[in-house]
Amino acid sequence: MEVRTRKLSRGEALNFLERGFAEAGMKVDREKVEAAVEELDGIIGWLTYCGYLRVGERGDLGRVVEEAVELARSEFESFPLQGSAGGTGSCSSRWLRAPGSGGG
């Protein structure tokens, strides 16, 4: 099964988070939402994760973004590589760029 997603535009990402917070009965400062959108670069999975953690009161949006980046780094570094010596290996953090860093 294949699931296709696309990167949300800045406006769509802002709307996505703001509506999600509103549905959860939360009032979140617009500047913090904008900062999260900027960092997470319209990637819907990270926006969802950010909202999930924030609604669960696991921290402010800045902390949530830090957690998301660390989770991505951890997952990426433990991801097995095909074709490396012995057929397995792991990805190096030098290949990982945090959301919003311009690294495609």
Automatic annotation (TrEMBL):
A molecular function GO annotation: ATP binding
UniProt entry tagged with the keyword Nucleotide-binding: yes
Protein keywords: ATP-binding, Nucleotide-binding
Region annotated Disordered, chain positions: 81-104
Taxonomic path: Archaea, Thermoproteota, Thermoprotei, Thermofilales, Thermofilaceae
Protein name stated in the entry: ATP-binding protein
